[in-house]
Fold this sequence. Notes:
The chain is α/β, with parallel strands linked by helices and about 500 residues long.
Amino acid sequence: MSNANIAMIGLGVMGKSLALNLIDHGFSVVGFDIDPTNRARAKSEAERLSQQPQKGRYLAAMDLGELLANLASPRVIALSVPAGSIVDSVIVDLLNAGLSREDIVVDTGNSLWTDSERREVEYQGKLRFFSTAVSGGEIGARFGPSLMASGDEEAWLQIEPMWQAIAAKVDSNGIPVGQFEAGEPCAAYLGRAGAGHYVKMVHNGIEYADMQLICEAYHFMSSVLSMSAQQIGQVFAQWNQGVLNSYLMEISADILQTLDPVTGKPFVEIVLDKAGQKGTGLWTAVNSLQHGAPAPTIAQAVFARAQSSQKSMRTKAANCLSSDIEPLVGLEQQQTISELHDAVYCAKLTVYAQGFDLLKVTSDREGWQLDFANIAKIWRAGCIIRAVFLQHITQAYRATPDLDNLLFAEHFATELKSRSYGWRSSIAKSAMTGVPMAGISSALSYFDALRCDVLPANLLQAQRDYFGAHSYSRIDEDEAAKYHLNWHLEPRNQVRV
Ligand code: 6PG
């Protein structure tokens, strides 16, 4: 084979799955992995596929020279390697192996977006750098991921047919369709090299918060309503039939109804309650803090994972800080569950509003001109946060591309109005029972602060001026005019600074 469409370097879970997906769709792939085990597995996979009537062909290359020799020109080489310095070292190896300046290198890993920006500049004139953030895990990569592409615009023309073919697809109502059916692909070109990975980072921040909200609902039903994992799983399965329909709700329902094959107990109850993280949610929270685009519920989800990992401290505190809160009596179960449903839904809307606000702030700062309808559109299937209500988000941004805040869209404003009682009531019950609802309540605080025409930052500015002469603006003058009050003189007088 000397004219393969694309190479895949890194044949771990994601790389291998993307390669097989490409082959399913008629593209010929050359694969390579530095690890001899993965290489050998690819070789036998290629032999197996050569016996079958495949649309695309598969070649397992033994080194980068063989890989480059088997690609059609200009070459397209996708990397599926761990984020960080490995991406650069593979690129340097490719350059040494004879990569030309017309060739395209596509980073499909979970790279930090600023690394992608840096690479676009650093490799200019040596190769065409492109990035594509992939969401959907192993199954998504194999049968239809969501692909957030960015980088060299001309390179996109060559990559687009492949990415559109392998991406997840939805029908005109936003409902996912099969791998080989016609539909709108969940793959799009988003802008300069950093944009795709930035959008994926925010996707993951939303993912962290979305997961946290579902976990809090589980915790509440288990601790306050004394429901079994099986029963909670059934409630989630029901919720998954309505406005909360989403991949994360679907898998949570399944997880909760699964038994541990070793003990026969509910599986979830034998899993240690210490959350791990690879860091993309943390990147989102840090980015939100750095640029003053408030995403408190995403940050709260990162804190919740950190607090969960302080297991030994929590075990001690459970004894020495035990509370004497009386259990709430007379809670009507169905009513409480229905309020909780609305609490999760309203908080979820708010989390997406925080995520899209972060995208907007960064898009304006970086001059990316991100198309929010397009982003919502490619999150409707394939990715981890796919959810039925992404169709409404797509429609909201299609109708008003420069929407100030997602919650201003009529559909969502109406939903929040009619459901916020359950949100508030659930949080009140969580406070009165001592069962934490950090994500759900942080979202409500964000929502309430958003609705507050006047916040107490007037007192805060006065405090700053009092102890640090940091100045303030007056409501009866132009905001640009700054003043200081001589707090420590008698009489106190105001000076312009
Ligand atoms: C996806 C996922 C994927 C990965 C997360 C897990 O979109 O396919 O987000 O990227 O599962 O990075 O992140 P944590 O290990 O930090 O939970």
